[in-house]
Specification:
By secondary structure, the protein is an alpha+beta fold. Helix content is 34%, strand content 24%. It has a single domain (2-375), classed as Endonuclease Chain A (Endonuclease, Chain A). A hairpin with a 3-residue loop joins strand 12 and strand 13.
């Protein structure tokens, strides 16, 4: 239903928005290229943990349970159920000790906010705000970011919402397949900033300085959080996607829930495959929650396959991951879908990292997902 609402809101838009932006030429040192393209550079000192499917709630509840100052969360979907109860129970234990909880929900994604859930937020002492109520000046410009930040030191992002379909193992129709990441290190401040700017719209206030502690280096990974906003010409989501594709020299493995990208992205994928890069994609199959976008995706397969791109449709459940694995150590995990909403109209965010250990985990997950998918011929 939420996908249908968004499709109706953007019905006047063409299927593939063309920004006129296309990256050309070889990509220099990736961090420098990232800074030129999105305004942020990779920083050292991070520790990343990939969290598949329902495992995100195990880690999230554990970190929330240790909160000392604040719990800040923004998400597209938050519904009443087992997942919500688990998160709110953990929050309540900390707010009773004086920890501040702020929750920002999108007006479309989390609608309708029913009385029972409102009551549970109140019982957990959460400050809850709604992002861009409808009607508004641009009803299609929604907040699709998924960001939780605890004490300004630990961050979570990925494709998950707080809803029971993200529980389980991603192997049945009722349990979606998704990929998320827990982050420690300097990029958490960028995640906190993305929450802060969105929180200002409905609330009008600032986070305290204590929500931005000094962050030390805690691990071997280099990382950055890239945020994207709606833009009339080209967004950071489009820029980041093109850069990640163009940076690949050996391998480019993509999982994405909704595949209807710009012509520039399609051409980049084809050019990379034709140049000898191992380009593979796992996309939604017939269990997609958006049949229209599933059909749109299939219309692009032919040209990509002719140029050497291999494509699988996930069969076990709805695949909701938004990941990119580039060569041996570079990865992107976040909320960005490869379709017009994410690439042009939505508030989005993604962790970009160089981490060989996380890349190996993501590669293993990708191969397992291929085994649960049907390759398109």
């Amino acid at each position: 239903m939420r996908r249908l609402v968004l499709l109706m809101l953007l019905a006047a838009s063409c299927r593939k928005h063309e920004s006129g932006f296309t990256l050309h030429g070889p990509v220099p040192a990736f961090s420098a290229a990232l800074e030129q393209t999105t305004g942020v550079a990779l920083q050292p000192g991070h520790r990343l943990q990939l969290l598949d499917n329902g495992a995100v709630f195990d880690a999230l509840a554990a970190d929330v349970g240790k909160a000392q100052r604040s719990i800040n969360a923004e998400t597209f979907i938050w519904t009443n159920g087992t997942a919500s109860d688990r998160v709110l129970d953990a929050i309540k234990q900390r707010t009773e000790k004086g920890v501040i909880c702020r929750v920002l929900l999108d007006a479309v994604g989390s609608a309708p906010l029913r009385d029972e859930l409102i009551g549970k937020f109140a019982a957990a002492r959460c400050q809850v705000r709604v992002f861009r109520p409808i009607p508004g000046p641009d009803n299609a410009a929604r907040n699709h970011r998924k960001v939780f930040v605890i004490d300004g030191r630990v961050g979570f992002t990925g494709g998950f919402g707080v809803d029971d379909k993200w529980l389980g193992d991603g192997l049945s129709k009722k349990n979606w397949r998704d990929t998320n990441v827990r982050v420690e290190g300097p990029a958490v401040a960028q995640m906190q900033q993305s929450f802060a700017e969105n929180w200002q719209e409905p609330a009008g206030d600032f986070l305290p300085a204590s929500d931005f502690p000094r962050l030390e280096e805690v691990g071997p990974a280099k990382a950055a959080f890239v945020r994207s906003d709606a833009a009339p010409v080209v967004t950071r989501a489009e820029r980041l996607t093109q850069l990640a594709i163009a940076a690949a020299r050996k391998r480019l493995w993509i999982e994405n829930a909704y595949f209807a990208p710009s012509h520039a992205i399609l051409d980049l994928l084809g050019r990379q495959a034709a140049a000898g890069v191992d380009v593979r994609m796992v996309v939604a199959g017939r269990k997609s929650d958006s049949k229209l976008e599933f059909l749109w995706a299939q219309t692009d397969y032919g040209e990509l396959q002719k140029r050497g791109v291999r494509i699988w449709e996930y069969q076990a459940s709805m695949i909701h991951s938004k990941t990119m694995l580039i060569d041996d150590s570079l990865l992107v995990i976040g909320s960005v879908n490869l379709e017009p909403f994410s690439l042009n109209k939505l508030e989005e965010g993604a962790i970009v990292a160089e981490d060989e250990g996380a890349a190996r985990k993501l590669a293993t997950d990708f191969e397992e997902d291929c085994a649960r998918s049907k390759e398109q011929k």
